[in-house]
Automatic annotation (TrEMBL):
One of its GO terms (cellular component) is plasma membrane. This is histidine kinase. Residues 240-454 form the Histidine kinase domain. It is found in: Membrane. It catalyses: ATP + protein L-histidine = ADP + protein N-phospho-L-histidine.
Length: 457
């Protein structure tokens, strides 16, 4: 049982039941097998019948008691032993060694004695007969302590056990629930914070349980408040930097316009590339400035993009960059129209980062496989390079900001280890999933799954 609630409940419940069993056993242990406790005898009726037949034998002789004992079942005979005046057992049986002291203590002055035979309560009786004869009888009246305890459990203990189990089970359930519920709330809070909801506070849910839990809740809320403030400051800084970038970008646009006015046809292709890059940079800065500072209200996905067309445009734009490394694209898709909700150029930037990353780590003469396929209500985009892949232990880490698996190679190829981190956050904002794995007979494969829009309306 792995849950804390189950462990607390089961442990407290078993403890309560064991305590009840121990209390009952200790309470009754001294009485079990006590020969003075007649209510512990196993056959008071049989004891009365023995006395009745002894009184008859007193008038008629020992033969009557012998005949009566011979007629009894073997189970009864094993509990009754009798010795005549000559010291012989009336049925010719050997006397148990533990019974001999009781027989020795019976005489004309001591007509009755009680003791233990094989840890069982026993009663001895001396009966004088006619003609100076006598009869000494020992009757095993009960069972041993262990047998009496077992009989008590089987007969009268079960109702007590059932009631105790139910009552203690209810009490232990409430106790376990009281102890584990705050921890369940804390686990829920940590998951929400890990998912990015830094505005969640736990004090209202567990603050009133106890002083220690209240202090823990207050410390947790203080931590999340500081994280929220830090994240807000970070967003403000990004916005400020992005805002400052607009001034040199505006000057770049002006310089680009002046260059185009000179009407130098040989530079037109290069100027077009510079203009496209400047427009793209303008879109990115606009997206950053449009993001909310608090992070509690994300912008809606108010645009639509067709995935096949987007990937075709991206691979065309990156052909020259790939050709410099003698790397080619292999794009495979079907004729299905794959519409995805997006916001501005954010999805374009994410997929471009993945493709640039594949170009960066593919060797000269390699190829990059881009496979697009619909899957249920989603579309799956898999980009596989022809590099050396990534160690299995680092497949999760490559999505962390500024993480690079090969420092030297990253410096040669440029970049700061932000491409996949940006892609992961963008895909998550589109309610999608991204994962990386090492493809067979290839390099690293990055698989992006995005929900599709219903185009039937």
């Amino acid at each position: 049982m792995s849950s804390l609630f189950g462990r607390v409940f089961l442990g407290a419940w078993l403890t309560a039941v064991i305590m009840v069993l121990a209390a009952v056993y200790i309470t009754h242990f001294r009485e079990f097998g006590d020969p003075r406790q007649k209510d512990r005898w196993d056959g008071p009726e049989l004891y009365g019948e023995i006395n009745h037949n002894l009184r008859i034998a007193r008038r008629t002789g020992s033969e009557h008691f012998t005949r009566w004992l011979e007629r009894q079942p073997e189970k009864v005979q094993q509990r009754i032993y009798a010795i005549d005046s000559y010291g012989m057992e009336i049925l010719g049986r050997p006397i148990p060694r533990s019974m001999a002291p009781m027989f020795a203590s019976l005489n004309f002055r001591n007509h009755e004695t009680r003791g233990m035979v094989d840890k069982k309560p026993s009663i001895g009786s001396f009966m004088p007969l006619r003609g100076g004869e006598s009869l000494r009888v020992v009757f095993i009246a009960g069972k041993s302590k262990e047998e009496m305890l077992l009989r008590f459990i089987l007969r009268s203990f079960w109702p007590i056990l059932v009631l105790t189990t139910l009552a203690s089970g209810l009490a232990c359930y409430l106790l376990a629930r009281y102890l584990s519920k705050p921890l369940d709330n804390l686990r829920t809070a940590t998951r929400r914070v890990a998912a990015g909801d830094l505005s969640y506070r736990i004090s209202p849910t567990i603050g009133g349980h106890s002083r220690e839990l209240g202090e823990l809740a207050a410390d947790f809320d203080s931590m999340t408040a500081q994280l929220q403030e830090s994240m807000a400051e970070q967003r403000r800084l990004i916005k400020d930097v992005s805002h400052e970038l607009r001034s040199p970008l505006a000057r770049l646009q002006v310089a680009l316009g002046i260059a185009r006015q000179k009407n130098i046809e040989a530079l037109d292709p290069e100027l077009d590339k510079i203009g496209k890059a400047a427009d793209y940079l303008e879109d990115i800065i606009g997206d950053i400035l449009s993001l909310p500072v608090s992070g509690g209200d994300e912008r809606a996905l108010d645009d639509v993009v067709e995935i096949n067309s987007l990937l075709t445009a991206l691979t065309d734009d990156l052909k020259d960059e790939a050709a410099e490394k003698q790397v080619r694209f292999d794009v495979r898709s079907d004729d299905h129209e794959l519409l995805v909700a997006t916001r501005g150029s954010s999805l374009t930037a994410a997929l471009e980062n993945i493709l640039r990353n594949a170009i960066k780590y593919s060797p000269a003469g390699g190829h990059i496989s881009v496979h697009v396929r619909p899957q249920d209500q989603c579309c799956e985009i898999q980009v596989t390079d022809s590099g050396n892949g990534v160690p299995e232990s680092e497949l999760e880490a490559i999505f962390r900001p500024f993480y690079r698996t090969d420092e030297a190679r990253s410096r040669e190829s440029g970049g700061f280890g932000l491409g996949l981190a940006i892609a992961q956050r963008t895909v998550a904002q589109h309610s999608g999933r991204i994962r990386a794995f090492n493809a067979a007979n290839a390099g690293l494969a990055v698989c992006v799954t995005l929900p599709l829009l219903d185009a039937s309306f």
